[in-house]
Amino acid sequence: MKRFIFGALSALILTTSASAIASPAKSEQLNTQQPSQIASTINVPHITDAGVFNGTHFIRVAVDGMSVQNLMITLPYQMERFDRVQIHDQFGREIAAKTQITKERLMIAFDQPVATGGFIEVQFTGVKTRIPAARTLLYGVTAQRVGLQGDIPVGTARIDVLDQS
Fold it and tell me: If exposure means fewest CB atoms within 10 Å of the residue's CB, which of 90, 142, 144, 163 is most exposed?
C-alpha cells in the first residue's frame, strides 16, 4: 500500500512540475525593452475624400503643412466635358479663384492662398464621358504651396460612377 501511495504521489509531483516547466513565460517577462512608438502625421496637402453626390463629382483636399496657392487637376481621359466647376472651403463657402481649363487639365489659381487647417472641395457638375460604360474615373491632383517652387503631388482621386444603363 505504501508503494501505491508513493507511486501516486511521485506521479502527481512529476506531472505538476512538468506542466510548470512546459508552460510558456508571459511576453511581459521576456520583453525588457519598451516597444518603439512611431508617430505618423501627415503634414502635406492630401486627398481625404472623392466621389459622386447628386450627380456632382467632388474631390476634397486637406490643406496641411503650408498654405496652398494653386491646384492642378488632371482630368480623366474618359471625360468629354463638364458644365461647371465650383471650389468651396470646409464651411461650404465658395473660394475665390481663377480657373483655366484645357482638354487634359483644370488649373485653379486662388485669389488668396488657402490657409492650413481646412480643406478645399472641388466640384464638377454635368460631367459627360466619352465612354458610356466608364465606371472609374481617376483625377490626378497636384498643388503648389506658398513659398515653394514646383508642384507637389497630392494624390489620385478615384471616383466610381454608377452604371447609367
Answer: 163
